[in-house]
Amino acid sequence: MSDAILNVSSVSKTFEKVSSHKSTGEVGWKSLFKNLIKRKDENKNTNRFYALNDVNFCIKQGESLGIIGLNGSGKSTLLQIIAGTMKPTVGRVEMKGRVAALLELGSGFNPEFSGRENVFLNAALLGLSTEKCTEKFSKIEEFADVGDFIDQPVSTYSSGMCLRLAFAVIANINSDILIIDEAFAVGDAKFQIKCYSFLEKFKDNGGSLILVSHDLNSIARLCSYTILLHKGSLLTSGKPINVINFYSNLISDGSAANVRAFKKEHINADKNKRSDATKQLSYGGKLGKIKSAQINHDNNLVIHSGDFFEITFEAQSYSHIKFPIFALRIRDSKGLEIYGTNSKLQQIKTISLKPNDLVKVTFTSKANLGKGKYFISLGFTCMENNELKIIHRLRECMNFEVLGDECSFGITNCFSEIKVNVIQ
User: Fold this and answer.
1) Which terminus of the chain has fewer Cβ atoms in its 10 Å neighbourhood, N or C?
2) CB burial of residue 65 (10 Å; 0-12, 13-18, 19+)
3) What is the dihedral of CA 138, 143, 148, 154, to 10 degrees?
4) CA-to-CA distance for 44 and 264, rounded, in angstroms?
5) Closest by Cα among 193, 155, 198 to 174
6) Facing residues of 213 across strands?
């Protein structure tokens, strides 16, 4: 714990299962009275389930943690335990420094109080004195940008305005750890940019962020360490790009046996080394397979910004596949999704495949990208009963490096031309 700002040790949380028995017809005070006089030994036999089961991890000062998982995996329960609004059944959480949490939209707000009054109320709950809050109020008001509504009851606010006000408070209390649960979902694009800018500056100044989000791009962009929860257990942890890939497999084929097999075979693989595509983060493959994937034919993996590059692969069917779909996706080294397309989106007509049919697929693209490393994923799917059916997918099966010029910066290159004309 000496160099950790957060240490979660053997944390479990159980809840009582609601009985599924048919109602006896008793309502009101009769039902209440009967529950009150239940024998103690009857209460001990209630069924319970694990919302969290033996979760362990720690983060160091300046690290940022992303928590991902399917609905019901225990993400919000874990955040509430970390924030101190819920106690674990077993285990402990140790933290250093001041903590600010945005767990639920409008939590801590009194709907009958004005925005101004709620700022002082929330700041007090987060440990800020009235004097300090008065000193910071103008910055909070400016960040929230709700105009004259600052003196109107919060009950008149939209969900976006509630988010603005809540985020403005936690952004101005000089916390060491920020805990955020899906807070960006209701914010408009302009406010999201403001939030991202604040969070990146917060991290640069040594702050630690704990973020729960279904937006994997946010996790990739903001977090240095990620954990994946599944049915209350910590399934895997590590670099965001690795955990995001594992999560993608879980979404695609989430049976327990397949998840365990995938983890055993792939989670410790080095994702930054290129090798034979069929060995890289492959799943599916029973109905068909992607083979012989290449980039630029001669495997030239270094290109200049603005150059065209070509990705080819063969797709073989092992069964009847109606109108197959072939897909390409590019991510950067942080796991941020840069670009994706497929034959269906581009309205490319494909023919149905018979068993053992073999087709060659070619994607020709232009690298309008900034300098850096990029990773290619390939997909072989089809539509069945209006749902996407995965035939075979390869995650991060190839990578390439873009050499940028000195005339631009950022993750993309728009090749802008600049004209300056004297008009007077």
Assistant:
1) C
2) buried
3) -110
4) 38
5) 198
6) none
């693989």: which residue's tokens?
A: 269
φ, ψ dihedrals at 252, nearest 5°: -75, -40
CB 229 within 8 A of CB 75: yes
Q: Which fold has domain 271-403?
A: Coagulation Factor XIII; Chain A, domain 1 (2.70.50)
Closest CA to 270 of 295, 245, 297: 245
* Token reading at 328: 């390409």
Query: Which superfamily does 4-19+33-235 belong to?
Result: P-loop containing nucleotide triphosphate hydrolases (3.40.50.300)
Domains of the chain by residue range: 4-19+33-235, 271-403
- pTM for the whole structure: 0.72
User: In angstroms, what CA-CA distances link 172 with 83, 100, 102, 167?
Assistant: 18, 10, 13, 9
d(CA 161, CA 114): 12
Task: Measure the CA–CA gap between 381 and 391, rounded to whole angstroms.
Answer: 5
**By the 8 A CB rule, do 65 and 223 touch?**
yes
Range ranked top by mean pLDDT from 256-260, 375-379, 400-404: 375-379
For 243-322, strand residue ranges (E) read 282-284, 288-295, 302-304, 308-317
Greater model confidence, 212 or 256? 212
Q: What is the pLDDT of residue 97?
A: 84
Instruction: Tell me the C-alpha distance between 308 and 303, whole Å.
Output: 8
DSSP 28: T
- Number of Cβ within 10 Å of residue 116's Cβ equals 16
